[in-house]
Each structure stands twice: as structure tokens, then as C-alpha cells.
Design brief:
alpha/beta; 187 residues; 35% helix; two-stranded antiparallel ribbon
Length: 187
């Protein structure tokens, strides 16, 4: 960013010959041609938990892969898909990082690749945003590869007892990732 600011120093000078503007004023008072240049200096805050008093507790009602892990969105421009850092969107794991994430086990398991993405993040202890299409080599568009984010959260899977025993039986990694079982009475 420092190199880009120095190379484009004239963009920060006022067009009417007055006093040089501050960085924020320069971004807000530019023409359309300069706006594209200044867009690279903006910030994309994917999650802000500064208003919370305690640890975040997030319930994800639609636990598909993108809603859990996050995604990089694209827009069409002249027949091609384009993206930039401002289109990186957070997932439930980002929102719950440092706190608790509650997921319905049945909904999670019925979403393609969500279970695998959740396990991969828990095993590596980091959130790595990657689209399903790129992970499976289904699409070959150039996209962003955001840095992975350290993961520190507790996950509660909610589901019936049969689902628990099926996971216990058929997924050897289940007991390593989910160590505590709790039963609740219906009444």
C-alpha cells in the first residue's frame, strides 16, 4: 500500500489547487476514474465483534459450506467473473471465533461438503476460505486466496441420539473432534 500511495501521490492532491487533502478526504472526493484507483486503499472488515460484551454465540440455521467457512463473491463484467478483496465475506466460523458455534447436525450433514469443511477447519485450527468449485477443480477462474485465520471456538452439534451413534460408528474422526456428549430429556 505504501508503494501504491507514493506512485499515485497526485491522486491525493486537490484538483482546485488548494491544500492537500487527507487520505480519507481523498478517497471520498474523487471522480469515477480516480475512484477505481482509490478503491484499492479501502478496508474490508469481514467481522467486527467489538460491540460484544462476552464471547460470541452464533447459531447457523443454514449450515451450507459458504455460510460456515465464508466465501469470495464475484461479479460479471463484460462476460467474465471478477472479484476483489472487498468481496470476501465471512462465515459463521468467523463470527463465532473466540466463542461458540451451534449447528443442527442433520442440516449440516445434508449440505454438500459442509461436514468435510467443518472437520478440516477444526483439524487445522484455522479457517481457510476456498470455494467448493475451486476445491474440487470444477471451475478454473482466477480468484483470491485469503490468508487463513486462526480458529479458536467451541462447536455444539444439536441432533437426535440416532444421528450421534451413526456419526460415532461411521466417522472415525468424530470422537477426536467432538469429545463431550450431553443428553437432554424432552420433558
Amino acid at each position: 500500500i505504501q508503494d501504491q500511495v507514493v506512485e499515485n501521490a497526485d491522486a491525493f492532491l486537490p484538483s482546485n489547487g488548494g491544500e492537500p487533502t487527507s487520505f480519507l478526504e481523498a478517497i471520498s472526493q474523487r471522480s469515477d476514474s480516480q475512484t477505481a484507483l482509490m478503491a484499492q486503499f479501502k478496508v474490508n472488515v469481514i467481522i467486527d465483534n467489538s460491540e460484544l460484551d462476552g464471547a460470541p454465540v452464533i447459531f447457523e440455521n443454514n449450515p451450507n459450506y459458504a455460510n460456515i467457512i465464508g466465501r469470495v463473491e464475484h461479479f460479471a463484467q463484460m462476460g467474465t467473473l471478477r472479484t476483489d478483496f472487498r468481496m470476501i465475506k465471512s462465515g459463521a466460523m468467523h463470527k463465532a471465533n473466540g466463542g461458540y458455534l451451534i449447528l443442527d447436525a442433520r442440516k449440516l450433514l445434508t449440505q454438500p461438503y459442509s461436514w468435510d469443511g467443518l472437520k478440516r477447519a477444526l483439524q487445522s485450527k484455522e479457517i481457510e476460505i476456498e470455494s467448493i468449485g475451486q476445491a474440487l477443480s470444477l471451475i478454473s477462474t482466477v480468484s483470491l486466496k485469503p490468508e487463513s485465520i486462526p480458529l479458536n471456538l467451541k462447536i455444539a452439534l444439536i441432533g437426535d441420539r440416532l444421528l450421534y451413534y451413526l456419526l460415532l460408528q461411521y466417522d472415525p474422526e468424530f470422537t477426536e473432534l467432538f469429545k463431550v456428549q450431553a443428553d437432554f430429556e424432552t420433558e
